[in-house]
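Recall from the previous lesson that a structure prediction takes nothing but the amino acid sequence as input. Here we apply that procedure to Short chain dehydrogenase family protein from Mycobacterium xenopi 4042. The sequence below is the only information supplied.
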Amino acid sequence: MAANLEVTVPDLSGKRAVVTGSNSGLGFGLARRLAAAGAEVVMAVRNRAKGEAAVAEIRATVPDAKLTIRNLDLSSLTSVAALAEQLNAEGRPIDILINNAGVMTPPERDTTADGFELQFGSNHLGHFALTGHLLPVLRATGTARVVSLSSIAARRGRIHFDDLQFEKSYARCRPTGSRSWRC
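The prediction returns the following tokens.
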């Protein structure tokens, strides 16, 4: 599911982490590493079956991993609010929030259920809303950390203030034939 992350992580026993997009890729690697360090990890995923497969794979190498799957579709602000409501209602602090999930250049312009361009709505607004909704349980620790991941493509982008929804100028990246993309 992901390359093994060779990072030094301190003992996280008693800490609680939420990782979005943790059923594959970097999110999966982070969830596995946090669980191996003793953290309780809430795996916030869009596809429950893929989340369950990820849990099984993590438990194969970290048998005592404390993992919970929660549904989260970042393209739906209703889904974002629902997850935040569940986590806030539990009244348990969150020590680490890793905003990792993302949509990468859909072939056609698409919008979220709330009418935002899909990448902007999912990758930015969804995580922004989730973080905002979770502030009560993040602040409860006094030492919580929020980590928001992005790709190198963020350095290439520009904000078109006259076309924030990419209604005029949507263009997706295309594979170059190797393992890279041309944007």
